[in-house]
Design brief:
Alpha-Beta Plaits; four-stranded antiparallel beta sheet; 3 helices; 4 strands; about 40% helix
Length: about 100
């Protein structure tokens, strides 16, 4: 069974390049090094874009709900706070945990 931790981030357009580079060069490496997820993907959202923001969806895949929950309750909180501090009030985040059926 596969579990998907999905995060949609809306970021101010003027920070898009900086945010994407930070995610690819720093954040994803930190998350994946922890070992809770087997793989991840990132997609640019092509609907609901407005003049000031752009959205991306990040998907982390795991075969263990226990590992995902542990991540969310522990290291994930630290990494989410790091993201908040880095991009302050210039983003919004929506998280969903899904189970393959």
């Amino acid at each position: 069974m596969i579990f998907l931790y999905s995060i949609t981030v809306g970021i101010d357009k003027d920070l898009e390049t900086e945010w994407l580079a930070w995610m690819k060069e720093i954040h994803f490496q930190k998350v994946m090094t922890l070992g809770y997820f087997e793989n991840y993907k990132i997609y640019k959202v092509l609907t609901h874009e407005d003049e000031t923001t752009v959205s991306y969806n990040i998907q982390y895949f795991s075969d263990s709900i226990e590992r995902v929950v542990y991540y969310l309750n522990n290291e994930g909180k630290t990494l989410m706070e790091e993201h908040r501090a880095q991009f302050k009030d210039r983003h919004v985040v929506f998280n969903t945990l899904l189970q393959e059926v």
